[in-house]
Amino acid sequence: MAEPMGPPPAGGDESRIPLIVGFLTATTILSFLCVTTRVFTRVKIQRDPGFDDALIVFAEILQIINYAFIMKSTSYGFGRHVYYLHPLDEHKAVFWNFISNPFAIVTLALPRLAIVMFISRVVGNTRKRQMWILYFLAVSMILFSCLAAIFLFVQCDPPSAAWNRRKPHKCWNPDILANYFTFVGAYSAFIDFVIAAYPVSIIFGLKMALRRKVEISIIMSLGLLACICAIIRTTKEDINYLDITYSAVDIIITTTAEINTLQICACIPTFLPLINKLRGHDPWTSASHKRSPFQASHSGKTPNHKPSGSWRPLPPGAGSGKGGVGDDMDGEDVLLGRLGGSGTKVEGGGGGGDGMGVDGGVPRRGIRATTEVQTQWEAV
């Protein structure tokens, strides 16, 4: 135990280590399972992994590293009052918690960019201006987060004074860093609200049943949970540095909750093809696709002509090159075709028969037109 520093804490030697270990372990495992399910769905079922999946996986790796460092800090007493810790244990507990901070800060930013990229898959090229705004918000969040991580290491001279204030040092006014982290927290909450609300505004403009609109809107707006976590985390930024091993527990809990909530919310919308498959549906053809007015009806076999792939003709004007969600397409068919990759896989070329999509030679996911026809005949 350290030399007495004033009167002992009112609650005595209270330990919040079980809370840290239990909450972080449970939420990190749940997040890991969701990320694993997402990767399985995109790689094995859809066979269409993207850069957004790589971002989610990278963020999960950073979160696991963050989790490991925090667990290491609890082994030295992080979660107990400084008053009851040996000075060496106090130093190591604060050090390992401090080292975990950059990983947590960067992890908070990456899933937001992955969510924006996923939204971009859904809306296609029809709303470029709005998507540029979302990309700007997500990328700027990453930049602000990286600056926050850098500020942690340059706030003191020498840098080691950030986790060991017993040695001679010169540090910034604590209000500078506190105000910056408050700004980043508020900005992240704003971004979470925007990227959760934007898809809902699109979904309710599509031509589909109201019940389906509500279901998909709920799935796409789960990011509001992360917004709530960001608001709570921002209100917990006040830390008593004289008893940091105990007073910083709330910020650890709320930060971990926000990280894992972001990861989970970013993964759930990609589960739809897996859910269809488990329910016995073809992951490439959902029930809504069968009801689509633009779905070809094959009541009998046509031995002489068949398209090379799963034929789903486009309505007039759908191959104009805009892509994404448009008024000339069946809204539900398009959205579910892109939301989680439940689209139709078609081989062959676009209007020019060059093996590319309908966007001027640029391959696209989802519904694609084809002019390629295979002709078969038998000699009689």
Q: What is Rg?
A: 26 Å
Distance between the termini: 98 Å
Tell me the number of helical segments per DSSP (H or I, 4 or more residues long): 12
What is the assembly state of the chains in this entry?
Answer: single chain
Helix content bin: 55-70%
Q: What fraction of residues sit in β-strands?
A: under 5%
Strand order of the largest sheet: 1-2
Shape estimate: elongated
Number of beta strands:
4
Alpha-beta content class = mainly alpha
**Uncertain runs:** 283-371
Give the biggest sheet. 2 strands, antiparallel
Structure description:
With 380 residues, the protein is mainly α. The chain is 56% helix and 3% strand. The chain is built from 12 helices and 4 strands. A two-stranded antiparallel ribbon has the order 1-2. Helix 7 packs antiparallel against helix 9. The longest helix has 37 residues. The N and C termini lie far apart (98 Å). About 23% of the residues have low confidence.
